[in-house]
Amino acid sequence: MSLAASSITRLRQLLVSGEISPLDIVEDLEAAITARDADVGAFLSRDLAAAREAAAQADLSLPLGGIPIALKDNINALGEPCTCASRFLENGYLSPYDATVTRKLREAGAVIFGRTNMDEFAMGSATENSALRVTRNPRDLSRVPGGSSGGSAAAVAAHTAIAALGSDTGGSIRQPASHCGVVGLKPSYGRVSRFGLVAFASSLDQIGPLTRSVDDAAVLLQAIAGHDPADSTSLRTPVPDYLAEIDRGVSGMKLGLPREYFGDGIDPAVRATVMAAVDRLQAAGAEIVEISLPHTEHAVATYYILAPAEASSNLSRFDGIRYGVRHGGSGDLLDLYRDSREAGFGPEVKRRILLGTYVLSSGYYDAYYTRAQKVRTLIRRDFEQAFAGVDAILSPVAPGAARKIGENAGNPLQEYLSDIFTLSANLAGICAISVPAGEIESDTGTRLPVGLQILGPHLGEASLLRVAKAAEATSTPA
Ligand code: GLN
Fold first, then answer.
1. Is-catalytic flag, 72?
2. How many whole angstroms from 45 Cα to the centroid of ligand 1?
3. What is the Cα 233 distance to its own chain's centre?
């Protein structure tokens, strides 16, 4: 197997035993990118010279020593572009600092390698809202990779990255992981520092890993988790050893199946694939119980009020003065703001800012924003009640497999509705992971991956990973 197609854990063995050098991995990845990225389009930029230099100096005694990691292009890395796939930041913006996750990866010995495509400012579910390039699903180039961390998922699936970081505000790690057939973990809110992540919706955003295996997800989470004085929402709770109990299996565990997640609107082939994964966990010793998350039907409306509200506030910093493009300026200051934002933002970002400004405006604030906050509390309580009786919850990640490029063009509502199964984890602040469950056949005969979503209680990553590892071990590899 090529180095570029290997897992972190396998590469670490080869590095430590001296069979390969970190430079070998970087060169293999470069060759893979040259061979495949023109088709897939996962990367926005990469600094080969910096990667080679970091590889040459990598300290192999560190946990990620010599392992290249790609970053979604909304995570800052000193001296590198951070475009958020937006025209606003396309030309000339270079990060003046490392995000905390970037610093932690470097401190663990990783080589920062490449910046991946995404929906503009992480708003979307298909990476089609990128203003900068098209990313295709490596399993079927006529289809989307999912989003918004579509470049990260596609790179890991195409063997052009060993592993990558993404961000997840409403599903953006888990859904592209499911669509591309890789593992994607959204940590609990507060587990990983958001310092240096370009904010979309600050009460929902978390950074997490996209990897080839559950072990690799645990290794990366270990490296990036923990308290950070620069992010007041990061928690002081100690970080457990995520590999310590990962192989214990699911025997004796109670896993919940929420009836609201298996109803109408889900592709029967997706449902069957997810149920087959559930059956395998049962055969491996888990007890499966039906549960209810009664407020699920309100998740889409709640999220699409709160996330745009926060986005409209967070994105006000893009004004043509401090960051990125500047347009206008012949008139007064307001003209400069308006012209810069008109030219810099794409249509979906503008839609979110309009939505968010509307729900926060006086007269509508209580009717929309305050009400949505109340429903958010009800959704969080649904999970608290459920986790009083089960160790983890099993569900689909998305109602369908990867769709065709362009299929939902001009129909944002249809796109929002497809986020139904992932949004609630962010609203509740809990952890969740997508693990490959199987494949379904598309109408053109391609085989499309389908993920199993596993949801765990707040800060329950260790047992979440344990269930995920059991699901991975019992699945039939693609
Ligand atoms: N698809 C959702 C949205 O468009 C979630 C995006 C995300 O998690 N960043 O807002």
1. yes
2. 22
3. 19
pLDDT of residue 30: 95
Per-residue confidence (pLDDT) for residue 155, from 0 to 100: 98
Identify any residues that bridge with 396 across adjacent strands, giving them in sequence order.
452
7, 86, 130, 148: the active-site residue: 148
* pLDDT at residue number 1: 65
* Positive or negative: CA dihedral 210, 215, 220, 221: positive
Q: Of all atoms in ligand 1, which is nearest to the CA of residue 169?
A: 8
**Whether 194 contacts 187, CB under 8 Å:** no
* Collapsed DSSP state (helix, strand, coil) of residue 421: coil
Cα-Cα-Cα-Cα dihedral sign, residues 127, 129, 26, 56: negative
Extract the residue ranges of the chain whose pLDDT is less than 50. 478
Q: Cβ–Cβ contacts within 10 Å for residue 268, how many?
A: 8
For the Cβ of 439 lying below 6 angstroms from any atom of ligand 1, the answer is no
In the numeric block, the tokens 């699945």 are attached to 475
Cβ-Cβ contacts under 8 Å for 85 (sequence gap 6 or more): 44, 73, 117, 118, 119, 120, 121, 129, 130, 131, 132, 133
Architecture of the CATH domain 8-224: Alpha-Beta Complex (3.90)
